[in-house]
Design brief:
The complex is a heterodimer of chains A (175) and B (358).
Chain A lengths: L12 E7 L2 E7 L1 H7 L4 H4 L4 H9 L4 H9 L9 H7 L7 H4 L1 H12 L13 H22 L3 H22 L5
Antiparallel strand pairs in A: 1-2
Chain B lengths: L2 H4 L17 E10 L12 H16 L8 E4 L5 H9 L5 H5 L5 E4 L5 E5 L5 E8 L3 H18 L4 E2 L3 E2 L11 E8 L1 H5 L3 H10 L2 E4 L12 E6 L7 H47 L5 H16 L8 H10 L2 H8 L5 H24 L3
Antiparallel strand pairs in B: 1-5, 1-8, 2-3, 3-4, 4-5, 6-7, 8-10, 9-10
The chains are: A mainly alpha (175), B alpha+beta (358).
Chain lengths: 175, 358
């Protein structure tokens, strides 16, 4: 939904306004809300959403449900109730914001809440090595095509050596 | 890549050279990734999606395995082109339907591809012929490592790779095999097998994956969960179960042959006859009849068609394929006629090659 005032940014502040006994829904973006001086506690105050949630997990009953539904991700401004409707989170930060609500959900979906797989490779050594091996493979292929078998054999030994070394270093590969 | 030219050839994953190709059509492994600094696709602004697109493109240009890939922005493609890519198992319906800044990157043999700005910013895919989960995983793992050098992935130590939908969080991996199980269907054991599959945490889907119908006795089996197991464990689990299913299929096949060999062979040859001589045929009918012929090949009945020809039949007779190859849109009636011509030609060529092998 776009902001009713500027029409450009997504509306993140939603409320019902009553002017002269006429009720109307207002949907505006963060910037316009601020400019108009609309009261937006979630955006203006700097309290941590994590703290708010921590206080809520222990509560039970429907009040928790309504309050949790209004918890908003500080980065993408997604509220938890919107996630419950769409089944999709707004941004990577939502996983931190809604951690308490997501945990039981993840357990139900996956039977686990702990990642056991790979991590992003930021050590470029592994990739550099892989690129080198690929290059040597290509050279070897060329040598074979040109029937330079001695050169090909040398390249093959070189590839083997590098692969053995890298196996010893990285072990199983994924963590 | 010109799609019209592509309509006439096959991706390498369909060449039937992979292990157990008579039962397992193909293997697919996909990884879901997102960029840390950008909201997930459905919450991102156009300029953010454009940023994702260009970052991915520049990372791809530095990745040797992908450097030659074609970039196809969805907004430059006609609806027919997009349907073609769906039929080709390269994009999802979701990517095809949406007009926002989305695209496909694909290498010419289709073994590696990436959807950009689908549900997640990046969906990397590796497709392989037959039953080869490990090498498909290694291929996609390697490009993921390469792209991860340049792209700042959304990742956290506890939950792994963060995805728009919590059902993909963790490894972000979906590994699957497309498997042909006619004997289990014929002997009505398939229900029990599928039930068993879901009990061990795997999912069964139709020919085109999520939300698609089961047709031609093809089943897509994939891991259901993405959190709590390493990629290697997921691959090995799926591999074990698939082996077992192949084994069940073979046993059901033996039973069938013992009880009803003549009836089975009659059914297979009649299916072949219809394909070989029809003058108008729907794609659904091609799928069903070619399933019977594929069954015949698995039974080692000679004189039918090669698995590769059957794969070709299955893919090239789909509606958008038929139209792109002809270079124009056609209504269903005309398609059925053109399709029948194509089927006859493929089977005739196959028969000619079998008599005079080169």
């Amino acid at each position: 939904m776009q902001c009713q005032l500027c029409g450009k940014r997504p509306a993140v502040v939603h409320f019902t306004e009553i002017v002269n006994n006429k009720k109307s829904e207002v949907h505006v973006c963060e910037k316009c809300a601020e400019e108009r001086g609309y009261h937006t506690p979630l955006i203006k105050s700097k309290f941590s959403v994590g703290d708010l949630l921590a206080g809520m997990v222990d509560q039970t009953g429907s009040t928790e449900e309504t309050k949790v539904g209004r918890v908003q991700c500080p980065r993408c401004h997604m509220v938890y109730s919107a996630f419950k409707e769409s089944g999709r989170l707004g941004c990577s930060e939502c996983y931190t914001t809604f951690r308490a609500q997501l945990r039981p959900l993840l357990r139900r979906i996956h039977g686990s809440t702990k990642h056991e797989g790979k991590s992003p490779v930021r050590d470029s050594a592994r990739v550099a090595l892989r690129r080198e091996i690929q290059k040597l493979h290509e050279d070897m292929q060329k040598a074979i095509e040109q029937e330079e078998f001695e050169a090909a054999a040398r390249l093959r030994d070189q590839i083997r050596m590098i692969e053995e070394q890298s196996d010893q270093k990285t072990g199983e590969g994924s963590r | 890549m010109k799609l019209t030219e592509h309509a006439q050839k096959l991706g390498r994953w369909l060449d039937a050279t992979g292990p157990s190709s008579d039962v397992v059509l193909s293997t697919r492994v996909r990884l879901a990734r997102n960029l840390k600094e950008v909201p997930f696709t459905h919450r991102a602004r156009e300029e953010q999606l454009a940023m994702v697109y260009s970052s991915v493109l520049s990372a791809v240009r530095k990745t040797p395995a992908l450097v030659s890939s074609a970039a196809l922005p969805m907004r430059d493609l006609t609806p027919l082109d997009r349907q073609f890519l769906v039929e080709r198992h390269l994009i999802s319906n979701d990517l095809a339907d949406n007009g926002r800044l989305r695209g496909l990157l694909v290498v010419s043999d289709e073994s590696l591809s990436a959807m950009v700005n689908e549900e997640d910013h990046l969906r990397l895919q590796s497709l392989a012929s037959g039953f080869q989960l490990r090498s498909a995983w290694e291929a996609v793992n390697s490009i993921d490592d390469e792209l991860g050098q340049d792209l700042d992935y959304a990742f956290n130590e506890d939950l792994g790779y963060l995805t728009a939908c919590p059902t993909n969080v963790g490894t972000g991996m979906r590994a699957s095999v497309l498997i042909h199980l006619p004997s289990l269907v014929l002997t009505k054991q398939i229900g029990r097998v599928l039930q068993g599959i879901s009990q061990v945490g795997l999912a069964v889907r139709g020919f085109y994956g999520e939300g698609s119908q089961i047709m031609g006795n093809f089943f897509q089996i994939s891991n259901q969960t993405t959190l709590g197991q390493s990629e290697k464990e997921i691959v090995e689990g799926l591999e074990r179960v698939t082996r077992q299913i192949i084994d069940y299929e073979q046993r059901a096949r033996d039973e069938l042959l013992k009880d009803a060999r003549v009836q089975i062979e009659d059914k297979i040859w009649r299916a072949y006859g219809t394909l070989r001589h029809s003058r108008a045929i729907s794609s659904q009918e091609v799928v069903n009849l070619s399933s019977a012929v594929r069954f015949g090949v698995a039974l080692s009945i000679s004189g039918l068609a090669s698995v590769q020809t059957l794969n070709e039949l299955l893919i090239r007779t789909q509606p958008a394929h038929v139209q792109l190859a002809a270079g124009r849109e056609m209504d269903q009636r005309e398609r059925n006629v053109i399709r029948a011509e194509l089927v006859r030609k493929l089977l005739e060529d196959n028969a000619a090659n079998a008599v005079h092998p080169n």
